[in-house]
Amino acid sequence: MSWLSEYYGYINLLAIAGAAATVLVTAFVVSIYFKNIKSAKKSGELSEDSWDGIKEYKNPLPLGWAVSFLILCIWAIWYMLAPAGLPFTYPLGAYSQIGEYNEEVTAYNKKFASQWQNADEATLVNMGRSVFFAQCAPCHGLDKSGIGGKAADLTAWGTEAAAVNSVVHGSKGMNYPLGEMAPLLGGLVEDEATVRRATAYMVKYIAQIKPVSPADESTKEAEYAAWEICASCHGYDGAGMEAAAPDLRNYGKAAFITEVLNRGKDGYIGNMPAFNDGRLTDIQKQAVSAYVLSDEQ
Ligand code: HEC
Ligand code: HEC
After folding, report:
1. What residue ranges line ligand 2, CB within 6 angstroms?
2. What is the pLDDT of residues 244-270, one digit of tens each?
3. Where would you tag: which of 97, 199, 220, 238 has the fewest CB atoms within 10 A of its CB?
4. Are 221 and 231 in contact (CB under 8 A)?
C-alpha cells in the first residue's frame, strides 16, 4: 500500500480505512436485518399497542449505544469550543499552510510599510500608478475618466465643480450613519445659486482646496448662511459630526479617497467595492490616492 500512502499521506490512508470499515460494518448489519426479515421465526417482545391488529416490537435503545452517543455529543461540543492545547480538541494553534502564508504576508507587509513610510510625493504617485492600473483601471479606465460614465470621472474628482455636482445630484453608498445625501436641489435647497454659495463656503473655508473664485470677505457671510443648510448633517466645521457624514475638511484630498477605498461606494452610477480586505496596504492606498489627485496619466 506504500503507493497509496505516498499519494495521500497516512492521515488520508486512515480516513480511507475508516470509510472502508464503515461500509463493511454497514453491509454486515444490513445483511443480518435482511436475513431476519426473511426468516419466519419471531423473536422479541411485542408492545401492548395494536393498530388494526398490527403490533410493534419493543425496541429500546441499547444502553451502550445511548451512552456512546451522549459522549460523542459532549465531545463534539468540546472539540469545537475548548481552547487549543487541551486534549481532544481541534488543533487550532497547530501548524497550517494558510497560517504560514498569512504570517509571511504580514511580515512582508511590515517590511514594505517600513521601507516606504517616508516616501515622497513623486514615489507615491509612481507606486500609485501601478496600483491604479491593476485595481482601479478596469472600472475607472486607464485615463481615470471613468469609461464613459461607468464609474466616477476621477480627472474631475474633488474639485468645486464636482462638489456642486454631488450636492445637486446627491451622493450615496459610502455607508455613513446618516445614510445618503439625497439630491439637495429642489429638496432642502431651492435654487442653484444657494448650492453654489454653500459649496463655495465649503471649498474655501473648510476643505481649503482651489476655489472657482477667490475668497471674498464681502460674500463670506452669504456663503456661510447657505452653508448652514449643510451644517445640519456635516457640522458647522464640516467635520461630519463624528463620522455621521464624511469629513469635508478632507474633500479633494488623498485622505478622502483613502476613506472611500475603506468604505466602498454603492452609488448612483454603480458599485465600487471596498478595499479594506487586505488587498491594499495603507501605503498603497495613500499611493493610489496621490496618483488619482496627480495630473499623471
Ligand atoms: C441630510 C444630510 C446632509 C445634508 C443636508 C448635506 N449633506 Fe453632504 N453628505 C451627506 C452624506 C450622508 C454624505 C455621504 C454620501 C455618500 O455615502 O456618498 C454626503 C456627502 C457630501 C459630499 C461628498 C460627495 C462625494 O462625491 O463624495 C459633499 C461634497 C457634500 N456632502 C457637500 C454638502 C453640501 C455643500 C451641503 C449643503 C448644500 C450638504 N452636503 C448637505 C449628508 C448631507
Ligand atoms: C468595480 C468597479 C470599480 C473599481 C475596481 C474601482 N472603482 Fe472607484 N468607483 C466606481 C464607481 C461605480 C464609482 C461611482 C459610485 C457612485 O457615486 O455611483 C466610483 C467612485 C470612486 C470615487 C469617487 C468617490 C466619491 O467621493 O464620489 C473615487 C475617488 C474612486 N472611485 C477611486 C477608486 C480607486 C482609487 C480605485 C482603485 C483602488 C477604484 N476606485 C476602484 C467603481 C470602481
Report:
1. 135-136, 138-140, 151-152, 154, 157, 171, 173, 257, 260-261, 265, 267-273, 275, 288, 292
2. 999 999 999 999 999 999 999 999 989
3. 97
4. no
Q: Taking Cα atoms as reference points, which of 286, 238, 242, 237 lies closest to residue 262?
A: 286
Cell of 15: 480516513
The pLDDT of residue 19:
96
Q: CB 23: neighbour CB atoms within 10 A?
A: 10
Write down how long the chain is: 297
Tell me whether residue 107 is exposed, middle or buried, using C-beta atoms within 10 angstroms of its C-beta: 0 to 12, 13 to 18, 19 or more. Answer: exposed
* Cα–Cα distance for residue pair 260/271, rounded to 1 Å: 12
Q: Which three cell numbers stand for residue 48?
A: 401492548
**Are the beta carbons of 98 and 104 closer than 8 angstroms?**
no
- Could you tell me if 267 and 172 are in contact, meaning their C-beta atoms sit under 8 angstroms apart? yes
pLDDT tens for 20-31 read 999 999 999 999
